[in-house]
Design a protein that fits this description.
binds nicotinamide-adenine-dinucleotide, single chain, 255 residues, Rossmann fold, alpha/beta, 7 helices, seven-stranded parallel sheet
Length: 255
């Protein structure tokens, strides 16, 4: 489905990362890929994972989105290695641990700005940086969560950042539509990842959601990966500016 297509997935920390499940789905469809990691301490593990479990080894690139020099270097590496891009997946979020517990009203100014910069603004800055490479149109996908529009205990400032992210998806979709670049968000149900475990009470939450989905169970990372594959492929060519839930129907339920 993605033969002769090249793309990049931002935000692999380990094997549990949704970015990794997405990478596996995209790779299985034949895409040529680059994946990014935030910190050199992830590097060895990610290179090993990439070498071992994917048929075609992806490029692995260091990219902390708060470091403009790293973003510039990444763009240059992609230009030199691929010459063009067909899709980009943004699977990055951050809020300090102290912001993900207790009352939202206690969100600090620094905590608010950091969460917004990394979890929302980075979609704007990365899309702008990679725009010259999306030469023949393309697809941009990000990951949001239901906490953008409903109050989820302890999700706090991250819910506000996800609301901003979803608005960014719509504005970018309008900006980039004339270039045939589509911009969409996936909204997965809870999955046990490094970031998710930073939210106070996450494990109990996972159990509660499991009982209440329409499909009767929580989702897997690979279900998110396969929906990302759909959004990166031409099968979704008529869809832009949308938030697509991959949550086993949790968001439609009343009681
Ligand atoms: P994860 O911890 O595996 O991934 C988060 C990634 O963000 C990590 O790779 C981390 O290094 C990266 N990151 C943080 N700060 C960064 C920075 N300054 N520069 C570059 N990268 C940075 O966790 P995940 O659950 O796979 O999260 C991926 C995305 O999915 C996030 O946007 C998250 O909000 C979203 N999401 C997760 C769930 C869930 O339950 N796990 C549900 C809905 C949405």
């Amino acid at each position: 489905m993605l033969e002769n297509k090249t793309g990049i997935v931002f935000g692999v920390a380990n094997q549990r990362s949704l970015a990794w499940s997405i990478t596996e789905s995209l790779a299985s469809a034949g895409a040529e890929l680059a994946v990014t990691y935030q910190d050199t301490r992830f590097e060895k593990k990610i290179k090993k994972m990439a070498g071992e479990s994917l048929e075609k080894e992806p490029l692995t690139i260091l990219c902390d989105v708060t470091d403009e020099k790293q973003v510039d270097r990444l763009t240059q590496t992609l230009e030199n290695s691929f010459g063009k891009l067909d899709f980009m997946v943004h699977s990055i979020a951050f809020a300090g641990k102290e912001e993900l517990e207790g009352a939202f009203i206690n969100t600090s100014r620094d905590g608010f700005l950091k969460a917004m910069e990394i979890s929302a603004y980075s979609l704007v800055s990365l899309s702008r940086a990679l725009l010259p490479l999306l030469k023949e149109g393309g697809s941009i996908v990000t990951l949001t969560y239901l906490g953008s529009s409903r109050v989820i205990p302890n999700y706090n400032v991250m819910g506000v950042a996800k609301a901003a992210l979803e608005a960014i998806v719509r504005y970018l979709a309008s900006d980039l539509g004339p270039r045939r670049i589509r911009v969409n968000a996936l909204s997965p149900g809870p999955v046990n990842t490094l970031s998710a475990r930073g939210i106070k009470g996450f494990t109990g939450f996972l159990e509660q959601v499991d009982q209440k989905t329409a499909l009767g169970q929580n989702i897997s990372g690979r279900e998110v990966g396969d929906t990302a594959l759909f959004l990166c492929s031409d099968l979704s060519r008529g869809i832009t500016g949308e938030v697509i839930y991959v949550d086993a129907g949790y968001n439609i339920m009343g009681l």
